[in-house]
Amino acid sequence: MPEARRCRLFTVLSKMTNPTPAEFRLPTPGCYADPERSGLRASELFDGMTEHLFFTLGKLAPSATKHDLYMALSYAVRDRLMMRYLVGKQALRETPRKTVAYLSAEFLIGPQLGNNLVMLGIEDAAALALQQFGVQSPDTVLEVEEEPGLGNGGLGRLAACYMESLASLQVPAVGYGIRYEFGIFDQLIRDGWQVEITDKWLKAGWPWELPQPDEACVVGFGGHTESYTDDKGRYHSRWVPAEHAIGIPHDVPVLGYQVNTCNRLRLWRADATESFDFYAFNIGDYYGAVEEKVGSETLSKVLYPNDGTDEGRRLRLKQQHFFVSCSLQDMLRSFEKRQISLEEFPQHWAIQMNDTHPAITVAELMRLLIDEKHLSWDVAWSITSRCLAYTNHTLLPEALEKWNLPLFASLLPRHLEIIYEINRRFLQQVRLRYPGNNQILRTLSIIDEDGDKAVRMAHLATIGAHHVNGVAALHSELVKTNLMPEFSALWPEKFTNVTNGVTPRRWLALANPQLRTLLNEAIGEGWIQDLDQLSKLEAFQDDKSFLERWEQTHLAAKRNLSSIIHRRTGILVDPSSLFDVQVKRIHEYKRQHLNALQVAAQYVRIKEGCADHMPYRTVLFGGKAAPGYYMAKLIIRFINGIADTINSDPDMDGRLRVLFLPDYNVTTGQSIYPASDLSEQISTAGKEASGTGNMKFALNGSLTVGTLDGANLEIRDRVGEDNFFLFGYTATELQSLHHGYRPWDVLTQQPLLQQVVNLVEQGHFSNGDRDMFQPLIHNLTHHDPFFVFADFEDYLRAQEEVSRAWLDRPRWNRMSLLNSARNGFFSSDRSVREYCTHIWKAQPFPVEVKCELPGIT
């Protein structure tokens, strides 16, 4: 290789003084990078791909497979990301700024290549580069990518949106999580039932991560504590763990849209301190020789092990402590490198605990500061409480983690000591505020004294955080009034709201290219960075020609989804029918069974000849049930039973199609959201924290039928009551109804619902098996904890309104356009700005670098 070429390959910053946009298209002036690694033209991408095919993959272009081309293009794109990451990292070293640390057990980031092409603005250049390898459609290469199995549902998707928005807003940030070798599971449907198979998303390699073994951390578990006094006679406690694991960081670059800022997602992989025991091997104990390695690596093997067993619960707690400890050690190590006083820690790090999974952060940071850094309790607590904030994501009691005291003590004995001390000092404050009130002490205590004693992680997070936020206006109010009223009364200033948001880059620009083109032509490209600019669409709400183009754009997305449905299920659907969609995690409170019951009711109406006014409708379900959640899995079987019956009935004649699309994930969602006409957001009022699927649907022009739950309330307020199909009891009304609610009495007053229930009980949707759905029907008729029967009649009324609106095509298209036009508030950019302003106190740090990295010339 010529010396000049070698220099270019390893030069980080070129000597160019006036790079042209064609040479290096970065919007922020002053960051001059080597065009060999940073050039964004098709020819430079082609050169990068060729180089990686040869040097990285050991392939020649004529023999390269589509997977080889995917890997080569990904590596070439990663080069361009890393250039930005490294210059930004050096800029932060020279001018330290507060960095956001986002701690989350999930980061459902989705496929990376297509998204990074959008962020760099090089989709067309990549397509031209691929054409030189004989690839006519970039999609054939993009679809090769396995989706990273780093999350389960909305929690992980939200975290991914926030990381992208932080980078797009140029706010320094690190996401901390676990590098799960296996995701939650891949979902198959066999005989109508969910079947879980291992999600081997790493089997073909993943080009987007960079292991950093030199920055590994050691984490302890179990053992015991010892007390001692130092040379000044002060009492101390030390932890002597019985076992250790090593956390190996793997960094994933997270690029902002059309900016130089490239943050990172740091994921921890567990390794053993000793991988192989030669003594055990030599005496014939072959399993024992690798036992420690297997045990340690289990920590990052799988997302959310089943907590239905003691071992499953133990592993979950170990996972949480593992990634939290590694992350905090990583942050503290950065201070040592920069020789900054630890008392300044809150000025440099804002740590957000995303739900209760990272709540052990409170105790672990205290342990590190007291035991490892030898700070006093008061100083350590001041640091901890000034840098931690907590996001609550649920009102469901079963989702607010509690850990049995014996389990906690056996696994984290030193942390339990610290929690007891935190609790003792906290309850002393409560006694001063409420003298003689023992009941409030029991209510607020971190230790749950009722039944089996347990550590309440939500209480620990709330006490240790300077802010606690809900994720929608209604949810945040219910957190204060229903979930934590005593904490809210004690610290009203702590509690706030940040309504969730979604990134328009992935969920519109990438997912809906036809609509993106139409928007760019109509209102310009500014909406991609400022979603409020979608309001300009309101000027077209009476433009017949534009509304027809709007409809045709939507129809193109529906044809694409129809093709995917046929390929994956064999079912043919009519793209001109109303696409009625409910995709989300399967849970009783989300009420997929309410939707299924109304579909069965529509089926009965058609069979009886009472549905002449009903438009052709395709009802699509998708989502995963937790493996140990029997009722959720039965709901999937119920949906599939109804689908089989309807789809095989000639009387339907295409008027009604029902299907369950297996293995719903980010990739599938990118095809579903743009193609949906009706978004089903029908959770029991007061149970859904916020939701983000509702925002993605509305952003792409889908109309919502929903309850006043989660963010539905705010969506309805913004899109307008006339553009939202509302039904159901409110949370307040359900509280009043709860004590006297008798679902059987409600059933007897609804003849159509009775017909449907009778059909279910007779085995009509289960091939004559009368017992299959009996647990579901018994639950609904005797308990109905989520008020399915109570809301059923009003739900049918709302669906009739949907049918009438759909048949009036100009009206529907106008409503669809206004849903997009008025959705700007629900951008994750707005959410992140609110976090930065009110909670994190973090500022943007635009990367305008004109310096050489140390050691590079």
Automatic annotation (TrEMBL):
Gene Ontology CC: cytoplasm
Enzyme class: transferase
Domain of life: Bacteria
Keywords from the UniProt entry: Carbohydrate metabolism, Glycogen metabolism, Glycosyltransferase, Pyridoxal phosphate, Transferase
Pfam name, any one: Phosphorylase
Catalysed reactions listed for this entry: [(1->4)-alpha-D-glucosyl](n) + phosphate = [(1->4)-alpha-D-glucosyl](n-1) + alpha-D-glucose 1-phosphate
SUPFAM superfamilies assigned: UDP-Glycosyltransferase/glycogen phosphorylase
Cofactor needs: pyridoxal 5'-phosphate
GO molecular function, one term: glycogen phosphorylase activity
Residues annotated with N6-(pyridoxal phosphate)lysine modification: K696
Listed transmembrane segments: none
GO biological process: glycogen catabolic process
PROSITE patterns: PHOSPHORYLASE
EC number per UniProt: 2.4.1.1
PANTHER family with a match to the protein in the record: GLYCOGEN PHOSPHORYLASE, GLYCOGEN PHOSPHORYLASE, LIVER FORM
Function: Phosphorylase is an important allosteric enzyme in carbohydrate metabolism. Enzymes from different sources differ in their regulatory mechanisms and in their natural substrates. However, all known phosphorylases share catalytic and structural properties. Allosteric enzyme that catalyzes the rate-limiting step in glycogen catabolism, the phosphorolytic cleavage of glycogen to produce glucose-1-phosphate, and plays a central role in maintaining cellular and organismal glucose homeostasis.
Similarity remark: Belongs to the glycogen phosphorylase family.
Name recorded for this polypeptide: Alpha-1,4 glucan phosphorylase
Organism from which the protein derives: Candidatus Synechococcus spongiarum
